[in-house]
Amino acid sequence: MRINLDCNACCRKVRRHLINMKEVETHVIEKKERKIIVCGQFRPSDIAVKLQKKMKRRVEILEIEHLSGDHGGGEEEHYHEPPYEPQYEYPVQPDQVSTPLLC
């Protein structure tokens, strides 16, 4: 993830929030590259939203690596998470329901 970290206090604040997230197993903060690497079993968008709310800064998801369960040097699958699009279901209005025509 990418987040703007201006000073050491921002890095400490991000670290404190990441440590308190039970989904996050490990993390690495690279201040000069403005990058945070987070490992664990979670949805990346959930972690990004939590950090964005707590830090009041924009968080960008750079790359997602999905690792398989076996640790035998298997293949890694690289993909980018599609942008979040809310799904809306609108109720059907009674006048819009098609009725069969009787002839």
From TrEMBL:
Region feature (Disordered): 67-103
GO molecular function, one term: metal ion binding
InterPro entries referenced in this protein's UniProt entry, alphabetically: HMA_dom_sf (IPR036163)
Biased composition (Basic and acidic residues): 67-83
PANTHER family given in the database record: HEAVY METAL-ASSOCIATED ISOPRENYLATED PLANT PROTEIN 26-LIKE ISOFORM X1, OS08G0431150 PROTEIN
Protein's name according to its UniProt entry: HMA domain-containing protein
